[in-house]
């Protein structure tokens, strides 16, 4: 079973300088980029009523492949790694979830993947039955969930392309450009790309070895395309990296 998370009422979470005042949903930092944004200003209470604030430490398990899919999560802070265990015990990372992403929307009764906190993570946890009832009462929320599902499908399709017949240089470049666009959506820099995941995580996502990922990043740095900085990379020549990613 997944590790026991720490839970607390949503209004106990630290507020931010959001246009909406008060607490809970009203001060959520990722409201505008999450599926919740489709609700009117007068409606968040219905969502907050079924939400539970949860926190996970770095490396903690959030959910396990095969467990009953009894909850969905809205990531408020931190990065989550989604992975499957292959029959021989190897790990294949299938994606990373960032703040504002929903997790656990799959239709099966069991989670088709496991999820670990790459770094400290805060999330809103919704019991699946209560969340489904709310969605049935709010068609606009259902439409937003369809958009989120489309986003997840696009990420999965991009991952399939990454695992295809591409060189290590092209895979790493495409990973960095894709991650940059996702951070940009959250208001992040287009120059410095945070990499909270380890290089082993990146390798398991790209279907490469740790040594290959490290060697490729070093090669891109020697070519003056990027600079390795604490907790990420800085793009020195975004045009060349983007061209490499599109190869």
What would you note in describing this structure?
With 247 residues, the protein is α+β, with helices and mostly antiparallel strands. It folds into two domains: 6-148, Sandwich (Jelly Rolls), CATH 2.60.120.10; 163-245, Orthogonal Bundle (Arc Repressor Mutant, subunit A). Helix content is 35%, strand content 23%. It contains seven helices and twelve strands. It has helices at residues 44-48, 128-137, 139-162, 168-185, 199-206, 210-222, 238-245; strands at 6-8, 51-56, 61-63, 71-77, 80-85, 91-97, 102-103, 114-117, 121-127, 192-194, 226-229, 232-235. The protein has a five-stranded antiparallel β-sheet. The longest helix is centred in the middle third of the chain and has 24 residues, at 139-162.
Which spans have pLDDT < 50 for at least 5 consecutive residues? 3-22
Largest sheet geometry: 5 strands, antiparallel
- The secondary-structure element order is EHEEEEEEEEHHHEHHEEH
Quick one: CATH superfamily of the largest domain?
A: Jelly Rolls
Named at the architecture level, the CATH assignment of the largest domain is: Sandwich
Helical run tally: 7
CATH level 1 class label of the largest domain: Mainly Beta
SSE topology sketch:
Elements: E1 6-8, H1 44-48, E2 51-56, E3 61-63, E4 71-77, E5 80-85, E6 91-97, E7 102-103, E8 114-117, E9 121-127, H2 128-137, H3 139-162, H4 168-185, E10 192-194, H5 199-206, H6 210-222, E11 226-229, E12 232-235, H7 238-245
Helix pairs in contact: 2-3, 4-7, 5-6
